[in-house]
Specification:
The structure holds two protein chains of two kinds. By secondary structure, chain A is an alpha+beta fold. Chain A is built from seven helices and 16 strands. In chain A, strand 6 and strand 7 form a beta hairpin. Chain A is globular. Chain B has a single domain, classed as Nuclear Transport Factor 2, Chain: A (Roll). The chains are: A alpha+beta, B alpha+beta.
Chain lengths: 310, 198
């Protein structure tokens, strides 16, 4: 994994909104106020430097309480690409059953790379598969995931279609606020979805999109939200992102309109290997190549096979 | 001269950390009224074990913000040269702050327009982000600054500056590396019925 230091050298990240300078305007002498000096706004924040995209591997482990996260199978695997110059991002899910060469040896389902080689084994496997050099990783598990959204006061998410969770929670279509436990059930449910694990991976991306939008809205309303989100996240996520870089990432992320974040899942054909059901990803894979090129995939560039549906 | 020392404070998380607050300001001095200091911990350390760290950070951040608003608004001697204010910004934020002078200071022509500025209501809230080893890494100062600026033509202007400053420690001094500030100035009064803006 390339451990580049994305400098926290700021660029002109946030523009001046509103008036750049005070304006002076005379009003009738009898009225109060007599002068309207006006309102103005100035804003500056450090941003990710340059044109290079940032790639973060976001992992969800199915380890049970009391078991280290690295021991669990990695049932949620996503690459978050951020292009700071284009102010675009993409969340690309990789099916957990993808049958791929594992960096630590052999060929197996990709979710076994975590227990076999820890985060480094997972990173190396994904890099070998996609050709994308990952900058950082973030890893959480069931409990950490649940605690994050409970601490944040819930997850506000747009649910595109109704389904029943695996613990029988009805997830109705529309905008909902989910508790930590509900967000976890929403993310874990697979069997009641028409496209199974592909649809579940799409839902993982939707959770990330929703969290991103929620952070952005809260940060714009109250700048102290930045610290709250970072503190809550740091307490529940294992990551190699330095805190200073996390701040820069957060500032940069706040500049990206959630509508400019693409969510998709790499698709493949269903097959079997050694008697177990697996996903065979095409090679070369256009989604991996597109994301590797500039850190994002435009909605119009998503092939029909990758289009979000379930 | 600082006239009084008072302890104001509350509890961490659910309250804030006590800080020594300065009393009324002598001419040429300025001090925000501190409304609280809070910690955001990235570790699982119990909040009460962070109080000393947070208190020390809050003191340093308050000193920077007091100095910034003194040099950017209150001190008439700085109105022709705000370099002492810009020195409290770090890295690229310093250059950007100079370009935002109209908003971050009383203005480049303040010495020609105003005679004096009297702070009326000013509050400061501080948040401190600590790292996994419980060291303070970043602070946020949320300010609300109101003052009356008396113009040379006899009128006065209500100065309002509010927003958030993000600070990090540079060579022992807390300096601003990011900010989001609003200005909303209003005319407060007029010397004569026929007065007009200069």
């Amino acid at each position: 994994m390339r451990r580049r230091l994305v400098g926290v050298v700021a660029s002109l990240a946030a523009g001046i909104a509103g008036l750049g300078a005070a304006t002076l305007q005379a009003t009738p002498a009898a009225s109060v106020p007599l002068l309207q000096i006006g309102d103005a706004h100035a804003e500056f924040a450090p941003s990710l430097r340059g044109n290079r995209p940032i790639y973060i591997l976001i992992l969800g482990s199915d380890s049970r309480p009391g078991t280290p996260l690295e021991r669990g199978l990695c049932d949620s695997i996503h690459i978050l690409g951020i292009n700071p110059k284009a102010k675009r991002a993409t969340i690309l899910g990789i099916p957990r059953d993808s049958y791929v060469p594992i960096a630590t040896g052999g060929t197996n389902k990709i979710n076994s790379a975590l227990p076999q080689g820890g985060p480094k084994g997972m990173i190396d496997t994904v890099e070998d598969l996609t050709g994308i050099t990952l900058d950082y990783y973030m890893l959480t598990g069931f409990e950490g995931f649940r605690r994050i959204f409970d601490a944040l006061g819930g997850l506000q998410i747009d649910i595109p279609y109704p389904f029943e969770g695996h613990e029988f929670t009805p997830f109705e279509k529309g905008r909902r606020t989910l508790t930590g436990a509900e967000a976890l059930e929403y993310s874990r449910t697979r069997k009641s979805l028409s496209q199974g694990d592909f649809a579940r991976s799409m839902n993982h991306g939707r959770v990330m999109q929703a969290a991103f939008a929620q952070f952005r809205a809260e940060f714009q309303k109250d700048p102290s939200a930045l610290f709250r989100w970072i503190a809550i996240g740091s307490r529940n996520v294992t990551t190699d992102v330095p805190l200073s870089e996390l701040l820069t990432l957060a500032f940069s992320s706040s500049e990206i309109n959630p509508k400019r974040i693409t969510n998709l899942v790499a698709v493949g054909s269903i097959g079997t290997a050694g008697g177990i059901s697996v996903v065979n990803l095409p090679s070369p894979n256009p989604s991996f190549e597109d994301l590797a090129a500039d850190g994002y995939i435009l909605p119009q560039d998503i092939s029909a096979a990758n289009a979000p549906s379930g | 001269m600082v006239a009084l020392l008072a302890i104001g404070g509350f509890l961490l998380f659910g309250g804030d950390v006590p800080l020594i607050d300065e009393g009324p300001d002598a001419p040429g001095e300025f001090s925000f009224e501190l409304k609280g200091v809070k910690a955001s911990a990235t570790s699982h350390t119990p909040p009460d074990q962070l109080r000393d760290t947070v208190r020390e950070t809050g003191t340093g951040v308050k000193a920077t913000m007091d100095e910034l608003y003194l040099r950017a608004f209150v001190d008439t001697g700085s109105w022709d040269d705000y370099s002492a204010a810009y020195a409290l910004f770090d890295g690229p934020a310093a250059a950007r702050a100079e370009r935002d002078a109209e908003i971050l200071t009383l203005g480049p022509d303040a010495g020609e327009v105003y005679d004096e500025l009297v702070p009326t209501s000013n509050t400061l809230k501080i948040a401190v982000l600590t790292d996994r080893k419980d060291a303070p890494t970043t602070a946020m100062a949320e300010v609300r600054f109101l003052a009356e600026a008396r113009r040379k033509d006899g009128t006065s202007t209500q100065i309002s500056s509010s927003g958030a400053f993000f600070l990090r420690q540079v060579d022992g001094v807390w300096k601003v590396f990011a900010y989001r500030v609003d200005r909303d100035d209003q005319a407060a009064e007029q010397a004569s019925p026929s007065g007009s803006p200069s």
